[in-house]
Amino acid sequence: MDNKIFNFKEIRMEIFNKLASAHWKGKLNNDYINELISEIKEKHKLDDSYDNFIRDFIRVNMGFTPNNNSEFADDITYINSIKDIKAPIVNKIAGLCDKCDQRNDCNICKHEAHIYQKSSGPTISHNKCLQCGKCIDDCSFGAILDKIEFIPLVNILKGKSHRVFAAVAPSIVGQFGDDVSLGKLRTAFKLMGFEDMIEVALFADILTIKEALEFNHLVKSVDDFYLTSCCCPIWTNLTEKHYPKLYEHMSLSISPMVASGRILKYLYGEENTKVVFIGPCVAKKGEAKDPRVKGSIDFVLTYREMKEIFDALDFNLSEFQPEEKDQASFGGRAYARVGGVSFSVKTAVNRIAPNRLIQFKPKKVTGAKQCKELLDELSKNPIVDYNFIEGMGCIGGCVGGPRTNIDKDKATDFVNESSEDSLIMTPFDNMNAMKIFDSIGVTDIGGILEDKVVTNILNKKQFEPDKL
User: Fold this and answer.
1) Per-residue pLDDT band at 116 (split at 50, 70, 90)
2) How far apart are CA 389 and CA 227, in angstroms?
3) Measured CA distances, 379 to 236, 360, 362, 441 (Å)
4) Cis ω for the linkage preceding 88 (within 30 of 0)
5) How is residue 3 annotated by DSSP?
6) Beta-carbon-side half-sphere exposure of residue 228 (alpha carbons within 13 Å)
7) Contact 396, 280 (CB under 8 A)
8) For residue 209, what is the enclosing H or E element?
9) What is the pLDDT of residues 385-425, one digit of tens each?
10) Does residue 141 contact residue 150 with C-beta atoms inside 8 Å?
């Protein structure tokens, strides 16, 4: 076998497809796992030395940490009792690098010579990791993987013990076929057992209003600037871990993903509600496990994983009867691509303070490299000619995320079209957002920065519904 062209990433997803199908049908047990290992080995002509690696692929696909152990019975038993997936999200399959013909030329760590490393292949420093998923993509062999969180979710969906909501990122449009609308996806999720599919763009509208008010309150002179924390955990992690002084200029707001979980659990009851985020990136899996927001989102799945899940369930999405509705504004849906956050917040600022002396001047950076360059520039010279800074860790924004199914340019076109199709122009025109504010007791939108309930829900700290 020529390992130079062998790609374990594809085998990993093949294994996940089979695991998802078997567990959905109630056939996932030790006998099935052993049969699957034999099937994969025979199909891909792998000898017995690959057994433990395949078992670790299976563990990661089930949401467990790889342990390079041949025993598997306990993992099967634990599936039925798992309530969440534990960190770390990004994992290295121990020993697999030894099989790679390119291990001495591994280009994941570009600043070090391989000969000085005391272990084969890259080492993950979890306290420094931004969880962007770049190392997973860069490892062509597939030795670095992120945990998949679907298998433990199956029992919850089929058991009907909770209301389970699918909270989908704005970039989802077009990811599962040119003719698969949001309405068809909503039908698919309901057939799986979800209570409903909710657009996270709705909660982007809510965060837009909050951040517009914060901008209006904080940016009072030409020397002031404001960093948005919405959307991107790569941008937030990079700023917080490496630029603590600049992080002081960042909004305390949670992301729209976390807001979706917190608000849905507030409205429907935390004990009886589960929220599953579906989006384009690995970093959201890590964000959901941040101690400050943990419990808001129960599971995170990516578009690439959902593609395998729909296939495993034999769903032909294009044939589904759509349940179409507009939940979010043009601006909320535009969060999926670079410039969308700036556009949406600007429209809200103009609505709040149309005669501001200090005008809204955005700066947009896309991709981790540009984000770092801008933060370096700000560290050296904080006097700039812009005052609202939007950082997106992936090139093009969320449409360019590492777990998308389509090209980012095509995805951008879909997002723009979906945004324009909305009957709601701005967050202030979104009656869904206004209904949510009303449901949590907000009577004055302009006063939400002082509202204790809103602050508890929408700021980056542990959500404590009993103390509201």
Assistant:
1) very low
2) 5
3) 16, 21, 18, 40
4) yes
5) T
6) 38
7) no
8) helix 200-218
9) 999 999 999 999 999 999 999 999 999 999 999 999 999 99
10) no
How confident is the prediction for the chain on average, in pLDDT? 87
**Between 252 and 372, residue with greater pLDDT:** 372
Lowest mean pLDDT among 7-11, 246-250, 265-269, 454-458: 7-11
Determine how many CB atoms are found less than 10 A away from the CB of residue 280.
Answer: 28
User: Contact 227/375 with Cβ under 8 angstroms?
Assistant: no
Which of 228, 233, 249, 256 is CA-nearest to residue 457? 256
Residue 281 sits at the vertex; the CA angle it makes with 278 and 282, to the nearest 5 degrees, is: 105
460/357 Cα distance (integer angstroms): 30
Q: Which helix (H) or strand (E) holds 283?
A: helix 283-287
Angle ∠(336,340,343) on CA atoms, nearest 5 = 165
C-alpha torsion sign, points 201, 204, 208, 210: positive
Q: Both ends of the chain: CA-CA distance in Å?
A: 61
C-alpha closest to that of 203 among 259, 164, 254: 259
pLDDT digits over 313-361, tens only?
A: 999 999 999 999 999 999 999 999 999 999 999 999 999 999 999 999 9
pLDDT average, residue stretch 11-21: 95
Output the six-digit token pair for 118.
């005391």
The DSSP element (H or E) to which 196 belongs, if any, is strand 196-199
Close Cβ partners of 262 (under 8 Å, ≥ 6 residues apart): 254, 293, 296, 457, 458, 463
| pLDDT over 60 (residue 117) | no
**What is the tens place of the pLDDT at every residue in 24-82?**
999 998 889 989 999 999 999 999 988 888 988 999 999 988 876 656 556 666 777 77
293's tokens: 């927001």
DSSP string, 333-394: HGGGSTTHHHHHHHHHHHHH-TT-SS---EEEEESHHHHHHHHHHHHH----S--EEEEESS
Determine the 3-state secondary structure of 156 from DSSP.
helix
Can you tell me whether residue 323 is helix, strand or coil?
A: coil
